[in-house]
């Protein structure tokens, strides 16, 4: 008497549908995770770029120029005077060696979608030459000129931030990462990534040191001003 063996091969229709459903769920998760991961990497890279800028600004303010700060008094970067973001970058390139132009741009910024070639260096030569950033706009960062040399609270005194910050404390929709993510550098050199400046833990300190504020202008003081490229 011969024993029978189960020789069934392949999947049943229910098993096949279950596999397809699982693959669909996994594909959906991956399709959501990949853009989120790329976004996180871009934001981290941007924060690292701003950290380099902040370090150079703090170093300059501690003795890089006769005024102890970059000032808005004409266009003479060799003398620490800047009236544009490109000239501010030139001051740091000449005095602090921050010659890498890439730190000033976020290439995923929608406002830069028509730029076909970004400058590699701020100056056409290491310590001299023409400013390579003058014709490539907008830079992704706003910077403070005529900043206070000794703010009352350096940990809450902003010196540079992501382009598109309004005095209300919110980033505009056309900021490099939209209105949902900001990046800001402070006078002690540290970097923060607040969604906005409206919360108690993200507010700045007024220039007189008396109050918390969401307005960067109240924080930097009346004598200081902001250099920022427009998107128009």
Question: Could you characterize what this model shows?
Answer:
- The mean pLDDT is about 90.
- The protein is globular and about 85 Å long.
- With about 230 residues, the chain is of the alpha+beta class.
- It is built from 3 helices and 7 strands; from the N terminus they run ααββββββαβ.
- Strand 5 (about 205) and strand 6 form a beta hairpin.
- The strands form 2 sheets. The chain has a 5-stranded antiparallel β-sheet. Strands 5-6 form a two-stranded antiparallel sheet.
Short description:
By secondary structure, the protein is of the alpha+beta class.
Question: How does the SSE layout of this entry go?
Answer:
Blueprint: H1 13-61, H2 85-96, E1 141-145, E2 158-162, E3 184-186, E4 191-192, E5 204-205, E6 212-213, H3 216-220, E7 225-227
Antiparallel strand pairs: 1-2, 1-7, 2-3, 3-4, 5-6
Q: What is the topology, as strand order, of the major beta sheet?
A: 4-3-2-1-7
Outline: globular
Reported for the largest beta sheet, the result is: 5 strands, antiparallel
Q: Give start-end ranges of low-pLDDT stretches.
A: none
Q: Which secondary-structure class do the elements indicate? A: alpha+beta
The H/E string reads HHEEEEEEHE
Number of strands: 7
Number of helices: 3
Oligomer description: single chain
What integer value in Å does the Rg equal? 25 Å
Strand percentage: 5-15%
- Give the integer mean of the pLDDT values: 88
